[in-house]
Amino acid sequence: MPDLILRGCRLHQQTQPVDIAITDGRIAAVAPGIAETAAREIDCRQQLVTPPFVESHIHLDSVLAAGQPRFNESGTLFEGIQIWGERKQSLTRDDVKARALEALKMMAAQGVLYVRTHVDVTEPRLIALDALLELREEVRDWTTVQIVAFPQDGIYSRPENEGLLEEALRRGADAVGGIPHYELTRDDGVRSLHRIFDLADRYDRLIDVHCDEVDDDQSRFLEVIVAEAIKRGNGERVSASHTTAFGSYNDSYAYKLMGFLRRTNINFIANPLINITLQGRQDTYPKRRGLTRVKELWQNGTNVSLGQDCIYDPWYILGNANMLTVAFMTVHVSQMTGLKEIDAAFDMVTTNGARSLHIPDYGIREGNPANLVVLDVPDAFNAIRFQVTPRLVISRGRVFAETEAARTRMET
Ligand SMILES: [Zn+2]
Questions:
Q1: Are both 148 and 64 inside the same structural domain?
Q2: Which SS3 state, helix, strand or coil, does residue 298 take?
Q3: Does position 76 have pLDDT exceeding 90, yes or no?
Q4: How far is residue 251's CA from residue 264's CA, in Å, rounded to a whole number?
Q5: pLDDT tens-digit profile of 373-397?
Q6: Within this chain, do residues 302 and 265 fall inside the same structural domain, yes or no?
Q7: Cis geometry, peptide bond prior to residue 286 (ω within 30 degrees of 0)
Q8: How far apart are CA 262 and CA 288, in angstroms?
Q9: What is the DSSP secondary-structure string of 103-141?
Q10: How far apart are CA 223 and CA 237, in angstroms?
């Protein structure tokens, strides 16, 4: 007998409702009208049931630290890096773990059960890294955390940073990161990317680079990543985060790059909430949107997933942990309001994210871990339109979070 059966589940882009049976934390069956009964049954009322949302890009070491020691008044990436440079002097393991755990719980309540976090490894004690490595294990039975070793201040800007990055991989980071546009010279930026690919090879890790997160149309590190991925044949293990300069490239260059992208399968991770606020700060008018070419990449057949990047931190003081808000912003900034385009935005916070993160057992299929999100809307369109909080979040077969819908009574 199954432990739990969800009745009347509408799956994304499928018309016939199904039941989902769960046994020992795994999905045992997905079929219409399952005859068996279970100890607990939940009526999903023909509403949408989806695999968990995937947060493809966040910084758990800096979440919930806005205003410490001061708020970012210019609203720029670079003032954020400065403020964080001051705040990270006073990091402790408990401080990082407490804030990160609170953010992970906020995310789980919103149905986010797969999280890729960057962690700054240019702080010489590696306190935040050790804290998040510990936390990754402590939360393993309800959420999945993947850690990118991220050299926030650049690999070559200080002599010790290169060694710290490699040490982070030795200690167990899942992926190697970078920030080539913030290296001191163009040459250093290119060299940093070659180093990142070499380290990923040597330690058998994924790659996720903060790439071209500027409005400068001459910031062209993406082409270096694409070239390395083509030559090494490892594109599916590589993610390019932000790539906001792609939004400023001239079309002739941009479409040459689109062609190269069809020769590899690297992943793009866009962060529309933060980039619509951070970018274009030096523009007067017309003011650029500062987002990578999400719609055109999607049309090009390239995998694009989405991140929130920040929750109440030195770069961005908003952030509610809900990936549907991120999809909602994407639909606006990328002008993806066609119905198929809105569905595509939903994929970007679910299946595409799973692809970026290399999650092997993702999705509502027999045998996979029973990680499911029950929403109170019939489809992805309405999920994004209303940015709903899930009614139920099921993690490893157990109901982990339950939210009651707000009710409005009205005199008419
Ligand atoms: Zn980031």
A1: yes
A2: helix
A3: no
A4: 20
A5: 999 999 999 999 999 999 999 999 9
A6: yes
A7: yes
A8: 26
A9: HHHHHHHTTEEEEEEEEE--STT-HHHHHHHHHHHHTTT
A10: 16
The fraction of the chain above a pLDDT of 70, given in percent, is 100
Q: 268: CA distance to ligand 1 center in Å?
A: 13
3 state SS of 357: helix
Q: Provide CB contacts within 8 A for 134, sequence distance 6+.
A: 93, 97
Query: Would you state the structure tokens that stand for residue 27, as one six-digit string?
Result: 């999905």
Question: Residue 242 C-alpha to ligand 1 middle, in angstroms?
Answer: 8
Question: Please, how many CA atoms are within 13 Å of residue 8, restricted to the half-sphere of its CB?
Answer: 11
Report the catalytic residues. Answer: 213
Query: 411 C-alpha to center of ligand 1: Å?
Result: 47
15, 77: one domain: no
Residues 375/391, Cβ–Cβ less than 8 Å: yes
Number of domains in the chain: 2
CB 306 within 8 A of CB 272: yes
Alpha-carbon distance of 28 to 22, in angstroms, equals 5
Give the N- to C-terminal CA distance of the chain in Å, as an integer.
48
The mean per-residue pLDDT over the stretch 159-174 comes to: 98
What are the pLDDT digits (tens) for 338-365? 999 999 999 999 999 999 999 999 999 9
Helix ranges (DSSP H) in 300-350: 323-333, 339-348
Q: Name the pTM for this structure.
A: 0.97
Q: From ligand 1's centre to the CA of 60, what distance in Å?
A: 10
Find the domain containing 17 and state its range: 4-51+363-402
Separation of CA 361 and ligand 1 centre (Å): 26
Rounded Cα distance, 304 and 317, in Å = 25
- The per-residue pLDDT of the chain, averaged, comes to 96
| Centroid of ligand 1 to alpha carbon of 48 (angstroms) | 30
Strands (E), 157-237: 175-178, 206-211
Q: Compute the distance between CA of residue 10 and CA of residue 164 in angstroms, rounded to an integer.
A: 47
138 and 31 share a domain? Answer: no
